[in-house]
Design a protein that fits this description.
Number of domains of chain A: 1
CATH class of the largest domain in chain B: Alpha Beta
CATH architecture of chain A: Orthogonal Bundle
Shape of chain B: globular
CATH topology of chain A: Cytochrome-c3 Hydrogenase, chain B
Distance between the termini of chain A: 52 Å
Largest sheet of chain A: 3 strands, antiparallel
Shape of chain A: globular
Distance between the termini of chain B: 33 Å
Helix content of chain B: 25-40%
Oligomer: heterodimer
Number of domains of chain B: 3
Strand order of the largest sheet of chain B: 2-1-3-7-10
Number of strands of chain B: 11
Strand order of the largest sheet of chain A: 1-2-3
Chain lengths: 566, 366
């Protein structure tokens, strides 16, 4: 008999999310993803100075800090046909990569590891055996019996205090928790070390951006991080080298701890390399631009349909028309009025809250579609696009990671296992490793460019009379992000954000096609109806961010001005 | 365990009954009424680490994220050694009804004793439907939890003053905690996000001395918000000598001149940013070449924008003149008045100039 399970709130995510699943014979047959918060930042932007948009939109999300700021300045620059100096691209690129380090590390350890790692079981681990397990996976200096013993003591004192704090009342001892005690202790130790390393990535960002979260060094036309090798008040070699050292330290953690941990957890939970596939249409945008105009990139972007890597069609520049012309948002099942899909330039948002109705409207999130199809976005999309394209760096990391999973699991696995719950985690760790190489590459590009005497950081924007439209995209940690702006006489006339978590967390569309979260949950086992751990595993694998997914609002009782796309 | 208190006293082999008897005698000796006895018992049997309930409403989680960046104490030490973070949607392992059960258990078990931290604004329009957790509105949750806490810390500009969602036209009727909760000590730690030092300093002050720090009339602790940024900015000498950045990327910018003319709001903003800086790398927005955006002040999204335009009514030294009216700064929409600059208390005057602010539904204790 079918039974309905509601998980509200889904914790260890940004924002407020409710997931409903229908379960029959201990497997999920149907799922609904419902965003539970709405703030209205795009409407607040109307009439304001386009140069301020990045400051406002960055506050869409503090987990995805930086990313909306980057997409926003790119959108305004696109509308003004304004390029940015090379130094500004490199500074932005380094911040993009460093932010991804922080975000992916925190996502894996703080936000999702506890779905796989049983903290209580770690108390049964032998620190010496833990060290030999950890050392077989990597030669990370923290993998010592001494450290594991200290961590075990720390966990024990927490449990003995009777105050478990954030670890209270979780699904400890759940039958799907299959890691041996030693693997659990290793992961708890790495959880604590992750807290130190994510912070180093943010420190490097703050040297460039003034602070973090919410950097304050962007401007339409470039960055405000002044460069002057002969002053202490600007970016000089002292600060640059500090950034490099921090980047290298975090890179070591990524390659020696994060990636091996994901490989090990993947191999020890290999059935989760088959659950959680869902929507297999993928969309990623190119990023880490190498020129002022944004026509060549280190990270590839494009679309893939039906898991067919041969169907790759690439996006090639910041002005790409294939990207610009094929996105629409549906509201048929969202708490908004309206009966048709609309292009972001043509957006209309009239809220109409009606409580949760699984057969009708049930989310504040809209449902974006590309060529009328749901698309999965995120690190997996980008890794698959790179793999399909034959990108050597991405392909190298993927093949190496899959070989290590195969060897640990004792089963040969190929790239097809990436279309899964743990495949998303693996792709995210691979993307982090790829970006760690690029962060250092762009550091070198910046240093070389300064050496040539180029200190430019800004091209001044000017706002002509009349109307301009622009869009800017950014491959954020959670996937393809795009901002769409209409400027009229120097003021914002309309602003829309099409956000990774909207792509992934969005509800069904007018054709009743489920979004990626919903599709990926179908077929997942549910061992214990009271403790739907499996739901958390698959939903967390997307790295949900609900503040981002829902950001639209309308003025009092009215309709957002409707703007026609050209 | 019922016969023994949870820690300390149990080690003395004192039964709970004889302990309460002792408290009764102590109360009598002190001339206290019998109604004080439960409070004495609870203080003496307090948990090792003070319980903290952290509520998330209309927010971006940037304030929680800022704590991830803190180094003294770092997050590990904070949650293992200093506090018991019993409810926090972003880090807690439990989910769904087990998560909500943790909330209920904490406020029942530590009634009147836990610290309530609020991150995010509270939407009040249309019955508060714009933010729901576990099926309940943010307003309902705050009304249940805040009156039963020992004190409330509003972290960030959203929980303090409404923040970005309260910017004109404030579509969801977003307000801060102080607009709704009365009869409880409330400390505001504004900033977008605030420096974690300002928040942790407040928590440590409270944990150590069992009282809240002294605040200004906006509820901001003086140790963190007692000075105007302009008064302790490293670029102040350039301001005094009339050396300004005219536009980002110019020679003055490369020399580290004053950012007032490219929009720095330091002359109207109270915060410790220039002194304590961010992320332990000796940086803050001004050292990254960008002006202060005024994020610790109420309504800054309306009063301090456009961010790249200069504040009006600031006297520029060395006879370079005064920008006398708001109109003279071009496209500015700033509502900052002369009174708001240099007068600590007046920062609140410009508050609520936004249109469309919702009628407040007040939550009162009892």
């Amino acid at each position: 008999m079918a039974r309905k399970i509601i998980v509200d709130p889904i914790t260890r995510i940004e924002g407020h999310l409710r997931i409903d699943v229908e379960v029959a014979d201990n497997a999920i047959t149907k799922a609904w993803s419902s965003a539970q918060m709405w703030r209205g930042i795009e409407v607040i932007l109307k009439g304001r100075d386009p140069r301020d948009a990045w400051m406002f939109t960055q506050r869409i999300c503090g987990v995805c800090t930086t990313v909306h700021a980057i997409a926003s300045v790119r959108a305004v620059e696109n509308a003004l046909k304004l390029e940015v100096p090379l130094n500004a691209q490199y500074v932005r690129n380094m911040m993009v990569a460093l932010h991804a380090f922080h975000d992916h590390i925190v996502h894996f350890y703080v936000l999702s590891a506890l779905d796989w790692v049983d903290v209580v079981s770690a108390l049964k681990a032998d620190p010496v055996k833990t060290a030999s397990l950890a050392q077989s996976l990597s030669d990370w200096p923290g993998n010592s019996a001494k450290r594991f013993k200290a961590v075990k003591e720390k966990v024990k004192s927490l449990v003995d205090s009777g105050q478990l704090g954030p670890f209270a009342n979780a699904y400890w001892g759940h039958p799907a928790m299959v890691l041996p005690p030693e693997a659990n202790l290793m992961a708890v130790s790495h959880y604590l070390e992750a807290l130190d390393y994510q912070r180093k990535a943010d420190q490097a960002i703050a040297i460039l951006g003034g602070k973090n979260p919410h950097i304050q060094n962007l401007a339409v036309g470039g960055v405000t991080t002044a460069i002057n090798p002969n002053r202490d008040v600007a970016l000089n070699m002292d600060k640059l080298y500090w950034i490099k050292q921090l980047t290298e330290e975090v890179q070591s953690f990524i390659k020696q701890v994060y990636l091996p941990d994901v490989i090990a957890i993947g191999a020890l939970n290999k059935e989760w390399l088959s659950y959680g596939e869902g929507v297999t249409n993928y969309l990623a945008v190119p990023d880490m631009p190498l020129d002022s105009a944004g026509t060549t990139f280190d990270l590839p972007g494009g679309t893939i349909f039906n898991a067919d890597l041969g169907s790759l069609k690439e996006f090639t520049s910041f002005k790409d028309e294939y990207f610009r012309d094929n996105i629409k948002e549906h509201v048929a099942r969202s708490w908004y009025q309206g009966d048709r899909d609309r292009h972001p330039f043509d957006g209309e948002t009239i809220p109409s809250y009606s409580d949760f109705d699984p057969d009708g409207k049930y989310s504040w999130s809209k449902a974006p579609r590309f060529n009328d199809l749901p698309m999965q976005v995120g690190p997996l999309a980008q890794v698959l696009v790179g793999y399909a394209k034959g990108d050597e760096r991405i392909k190298g990391y993927v093949d190496d990671a899959l070989a290590r999973v195969s060897s640990l699991a004792g089963v040969r696995v190929g790239p097809s296992v990436l279309h899964s719950t743990l495949g998303r985690h693996l792709a995210r760790a691979i993307r982090t490793a790829v970006l760690s190489d690029y962060a250092l590459k762009h550091w070198q590009l910046l240093v070389d460019n300064i050496d040539r005497g180029d200190l430019a950081i800004m091209y001044q924007p000017t706002f002509p009379a009349g109307e301009q439209q622009g869009f800017g995209f950014h491959e954020a940690p959670r996937g393809a992000l795009s901002h769409w702006i209409v400027i009229e006489n120097g003021h914002i006339k309309n602003y829309q954000c099409v956000v990774p978590s909207t792509w992934n967390a969005g509800p069904r569309d007018v054709h009743d096609a489920p979004g990626p979260y919903e599709a990926s949950l179908v077929g997942n086992p549910i061992a214990d109806h009271e403790k739907p751990l499996e739901v958390l595993r698959t939903v967390h694998s997307f790295d949900p961010c609900i503040a981002c997914a829902v950001h639209l609002l309308r003025p009092e009782g009215g309709e957002l001005s409707t703007v026609r796309a050209l | 365990m019922d016969d023994y208190s949870e820690n300390g006293i149990g080690a003395l082999r004192l039964t709970r009954r004889s302990f309460i008897k002792g408290c009764t005698m102590a109360a009598a000796a002190l001339g206290l009424s019998e109604s004080m006895i439960p409070r004495l018992v609870s203080a003496a049997t307090s948990p090792q680490r003070p319980p903290v309930v952290w509520l998330h409403f209309q927010e971006c989680t940037g304030c929680s994220e800022s704590l991830l960046r803190a180094s003294h104490p770092d997050l590990g030490r904070l949650i293992f050694d200093l506090i018991s973070l019993d409810y926090h949607e972003t880090v807690m392992a439990a989910a769904g009804y087990q998560a909500e059960e943790n909330l209920k258990n904490t406020i029942d078990k530590y009634d009147g004793k836990f610290l309530c931290v609020v991150e995010g604004a509270i939407p009040t329009k249309d019955g508060g439907v714009y933010c729901k957790i576990g099926g309940r509105t943010a307003m309902d949750i705050l009304a249940e939890v805040a009156p039963r806490s020992a004190a409330v810390i509003a972290i960030g500009s959203c929980a303090s003053f409404g923040g970005i969602q309260a910017a004109a036209p404030n579509p969801t009727g977003a307000v801060g905690v102080r607009d709704l909760v009365h009869g409880k000590p409330i400390i505001n730690i504004p900033g977008c996000p605030p420096n974690p030092i300002s928040f942790l300093g407040t928590v440590l002050h409270y944990l150590t001395w069992k009282k809240l720090p002294v605040t200004d009339n906006l509820g901001r602790p003086l140790f963190a918000y007692g000075r105007k940024i302009h008064d302790h900015c490293e670029r102040r000498a350039h301001f005094d000598e009339g050396r300004f950045v005219e536009q980002f990327g110019d020679e003055g910018h490369r020399q580290g001149y004053c950012l007032y003319k490219v929009g720095c709001k330091g002359p109207a903003t109270f915060s410790n940013c220039p002194a304590v800086r961010f992320n332990d790398v000796d940086q803050w927005p001004v050292s990254a070449g960008h002006g202060c955006c005024g994020c610790t002040e109420p309504g800054f999204w309306d009063t301090m924008t456009p961010f790249e335009e200069r504040l009006p009514e600031v006297t520029i030294p060395l006879g370079q003149g005064t920008v006398s009216t708001a109109a003279s700064v071009g496209r500015t929409v700033m509502a900052v008045t002369a009174g708001a600059i240099g007068v600590h208390a007046a920062a609140g005057v410009v508050r609520r100039v936004t249109k469309g602010t919702a009628k407040k539904d007040e939550i009162r204790e009892e």
